[in-house]
């Protein structure tokens, strides 16, 4: 299970400077400007309100059939109205959308997809492993899974409540999404006849599969790390990569320890190395911040950032010979970032070191403890 649809702070800066830095480009408010960033590709920006983020890039890919849109923002009227405005500024309308690409299962990326599908019958394209928190809660809810009504507000709410009543993999209670976010999802879904606005992919892609958008072939790249179901798209003809949240220009994407894989950080490293090894990339189109050129260099920088985090844990072992995830989190993160997201990322790093044989894990009092093996 990944913390896919957890709205608060799913990115962080990661470093710990003593001075206040200027805002990162990913924090900039959404502009109404439409810019062409590659042949047949327009960048539009939709407003989001999340710590560390001010906009999501909704790319418009034009072809003879109309438009494909990439990551159509949060659910709710504000984002929907902004999407309509941006389409209009680009010379299109909602009815022109034939395909919706969702890079991964966080709500600032999938939130607008179900309404677009409802209005246009557009295809929804994701990686084949796409899952949201709601679907995971239902899948985990073995007790009632056979009778669960996915369109029932009460059944879905009960499934979520049971899911969040279970402890985290490292111990301690899970924190659910804020009530106001759940209410926004509920309202968005009910306006279209369903309990929650959760998209069901109509064109799930496998790694290496191709899809035609903007008059050329794109290659699907499964890039687990930020979420397990993350999808990047490569246009080898023009050297364009839609990077979603996998590689961002100036902030370090959150790596979740809540993953179906035993070592999500190793998966993230492998996915980043794939970006580093791509040839002839001319432009990377991220989901937040400005398009940038040196995709390989930025991917390497993110790898080095996480290698530094592993070294911080190694250096802290003498002071924390049998530390918990919370103990190590307090070493890795500034106090303002403490919480479940920071714990999840810390857990991913600790489990990576355990998989490498450097740490052993024991569970005492319902909490995981990590000790050096040497």
Structure description:
This protein is α+β, with helices and mostly antiparallel strands. It has 2 domains: 11-305, Metallo-beta-lactamase, Chain A (4-Layer Sandwich), CATH 3.60.15.10; 319-372, Winged helix-like DNA-binding domain superfamily/Winged helix DNA-binding domain (Arc Repressor Mutant, subunit A, Orthogonal Bundle), CATH 1.10.10. It has 10 helices and 17 strands.
Q: Tell me how many strands there are.
A: 17
Radius of gyration: 20 Å
Integer average pLDDT = 86
Q: Per DSSP, what share of the residues sits in E-state strands of 2 or more residues?
A: 15-25%
Main sheet: strand order: 2-3-4-5-6-7-8
Oligomerization state: single chain
Helix content: 25-40%
